[in-house]
Amino acid sequence: MTGLLDAPARETAEAAPARAERFVARAAAVTALLTAAGALCGLLRDQIVAHLFGADGATDAFLVAWTVPEFAATLLIEEAMALVLVPAFSLALARGGGAVRELVAGTFPRLLAVLAGACAALLAGAPLLVRLLAPGLADPALAVDCTRLTALSVLTFGVAGYFSAALRAHRRFLAPAAIYVAYNAGIIAAALTFHSLWGVRAAAAGVAAGGTLMVLLQLPFFLRLLPRPSARRAAAGAGGGVPVAFAVIAPVALFAVGRQAQVLAERFLASGLPAGAISHLNYAQKVAQIPMVLSLMVCTVTLPLVARALAEGDTEGARRRVERDLALAGVVVLLGAAYVVAYAPQITGLLFQRGAFDAEATDATARVMRVYGLGLLGHALTGALVRPFFSTARPAWFPLAAMVPGLLVTVAGGLLAVPHWGAPGIAAANAAGITLTALLLLHGLARRAIPIDTRRVLGTLLRLTLAATLATGAGLTLAALPGPAAAPLPTAAAGLLVVPAVFAAAAHALRVPEAALLVSALKQRFAHAR
Known about the structure:
Elements: H1 15-53, H2 57-78, H3 80-95, H4 97-133, H5 140-150, H6 153-169, H7 174-198, H8 201-225, H9 229-236, H10 242-270, H11 277-288, H12 290-295, H13 297-311, H14 315-352, H15 359-373, H16 376-389, H17 398-448, H18 454-479, H19 488-509, H20 515-529
Helix pairs in contact: 1-7, 1-13, 2-3, 2-5, 2-6, 2-8, 2-10, 2-11, 3-4, 3-6, 3-10, 3-13, 4-5, 4-6, 4-9, 4-10, 5-8, 6-7, 6-8, 7-8, 10-17, 11-15, 11-17, 13-14, 14-15, 14-16, 14-18, 14-19, 15-17, 16-17, 18-19, 19-20
């Protein structure tokens, strides 16, 4: 893809926005396809793990170790690394090739040293980490073994995240969008090959293999961006911009830590529940958050555009872009949430109920999944709203300040809910906490970063929420019908038509402009079906 901001000088002011939208559409389509492929591979991975190991004490031990790659992905790929380096590379590109070479020479070697040290610390401190994360775990020794196997992900995810940020800033989205396909392929291959020899440790070894594949996939593309040897030597002595880049890391990293701490709190609280509770939370969260991941595709594509607009002083262009992104993210995530809440039992049964994953595990996971669905809008908004905060070269501490109250609600609510409602209570506390954070970020963005119209954004999201509520009701009604059509597969398939149709019609009637995109897509689908 060519860089849309490198448009010819003769391009008219009217043509530039249209060209920008075409770029976003193309890049989002590529990202959507590969993200969907990665999500499907993730579902296949979870299905295989559920089939081979079920939902018991062994999978709980693995999921405690899974905290390491989850945390690393959030900090080093999905949020902190991208939110620091995409704006940094965008600013360097605006200043010229010399600034890009300086940024790479000044940051990448230091990053490798920090990542290697963190990896070594995890290997040595795995027993202490397991005791801190899950003090009530039935088999801590197994969790320690798995944690040591997953520790390599800190190094590989960090390098993969650096490559992804550099490529996205250069508007190269193909390889970064495909990394989770490679990652899940590594886990699946290891689990299937070695499960009879190593048990659940095979899945942990697959994490290490998958992280390595993420790096190797992007390496050829990243090498094409590196400076020539002569330029690299010239950049080695320069480092004027590096301290500024690292000064921006602290608030971003701490925000990512705070957000991921919600998962840590969940597993800490669930470790005292009967065996399998951590697994039920994990399976439910993985499926429920697919709509959230898909909703952030546009925001991922437009992050370099927002950063570049702010670097060039185009605050109005950044405002329009962010408001549109929030509306589009709301359409996708609320449609997905409606389907998840309405069809959680059917989804869980179709995906996981086989082998060691029995009907009891399906019921428990579906109950949690429905509660998680209530917080999906908060998760999507939080992911979308932090991007403009961190799209400048200045440190931004407000997102961390907004994350703290949400985390406190998650922890306090979880403590109060666990004795009465178990794992669903933990999920409810998570939904309440992340929704509070999203509201605080929305309010703070207009005051501190980009002057968005908060009332207009909230009005659009409230109308979309009403449409999602109506779509959920229609889906629940259809799912409750008796007879052969009530079987999981036909019911879930019928829901794929009914829920989007009701959602699109309601959103269109409520005058949500972005709903027109969904209505058009549905018309095309029905036309092809005929």
